[in-house]
Amino acid sequence: MLMKSFFKHPIIAGVVVVIIGFIITPIIAPVKLQSFYEAIKTIGLFIKKILSYGVPVWIIIIIGIAYLFLLKMVKSFSAKIEPDFTSYTSDVLDDIHWEWAWFKSIYKEGYDFKGDTPVPICKRCQGYLVIGSRGYNISFLECENCGFSKSLENLVFKEYQDKIKKEIYRKVRTGQWKADPR
Length: 182
Known about the structure:
By secondary structure, this protein is of the alpha+beta class.
């Protein structure tokens, strides 16, 4: 995950392209003017020259181990600690128990709700609440286990869920989620 975001940075991507260009250009330039057989032969000679440069294998191994060690160190230092509000994953809002998960958004700054959360849960029996409707635009949430029912106030479920999300964001922004003993 760290490497994906590392290579998405435009400066890093540009540097990688330039380095790859420096590596591939000496191989491609002579190959373009030759036949296929001669090109393969030239590439083989190029690889042979690189391998017979005179660098002992033990130095290459030590450099590889040092690189892996430094990479591990960088990952451990750059691992960001998640904000404490990410532990806030459930609450009772509008007389319904809601559960959700957070994820770090790569498209916008900060954290967002994971998947199709928050999910409504029955306060009485902890069963999932399902969406029901009676006629045009009269929606409700209902527990199939105990029969609990809650009107969505003339909203469709997605609008109601967005209303709950806004309340959760408000509690996070104001710090009120910390004071709630739930």
